[in-house]
């Protein structure tokens, strides 16, 4: 057991990881994944605000706290698209969207969760017409366990990339670490 004592917000799960890794930028995140084997790290489990009701962040190995990866990377006003690092809190993403006269047609009922968590847990909104929050995603950038960056556009003509996109959408972090999301 590790020295850390973590629990989700509802206290339905608690765990003791060996450590918490906190990258501040993309290069640090990638370096963690590239060097994990030589450092003897067997498993890294992404975590954010720890708001999920599931045990998706529970591990006796290492948690990867992505909340410092919280920048808006681009805003396309013409096409109403926004790309952000996946650790951004929804409240901060929504604030940036407001500045650019943008809004989503469906929103979760809570804004103190990370973008990655909202997508990976298939957070829902309150509209049958517009689908779940992850139905708004147009591209995912995900790092696999070896540190390779995969760009997965929803509209890819490559059937394999499209399958990867579909799998990554609601992956609970098991396919890799989502770095950025475009919606």
Give the helix/strand layout.
Elements: E1 6-7, E2 14-15, E3 19-21, H1 26-35, E4 44-47, E5 62-65, E6 72-76, E7 81-85, H2 90-99, H3 115-120, E8 139-143, E9 149-153, H4 159-169, E10 177-182
Parallel strand pairs: 3-5, 4-5
Antiparallel strand pairs: 1-2, 6-7, 7-10, 8-9, 8-10
Structural Rg: 16 Å
Number of strand elements: 10
Strand residues, percent: 15-25%
Mean pLDDT across all amino acids:
85
Structural features, described:
This protein has 183 residues and is an alpha+beta fold. Helix content is 20%, strand content 22%. The protein contains four helices and ten strands; from the N terminus they run βββαββββααββαβ. The chain has helices at 26-35, 90-99, 115-120, 159-169, and strands spanning 6-7, 14-15, 19-21, 44-47, 62-65, 72-76, 81-85, 139-143, 149-153, 177-182. The strands form three sheets. A five-stranded antiparallel β-sheet has the order 6-7-10-8-9. A three-stranded parallel β-sheet has the order 3-5-4, with no helix packed on it. It has a two-stranded antiparallel ribbon with strand order 1-2. The protein is globular, with a radius of gyration of 16 Å. The model has no long low-confidence stretch (mean pLDDT 85).
In short:
This protein has 183 residues and is an alpha+beta fold. It contains 4 helices and 10 strands. Helices cover 20% and strands 22% of the residues.
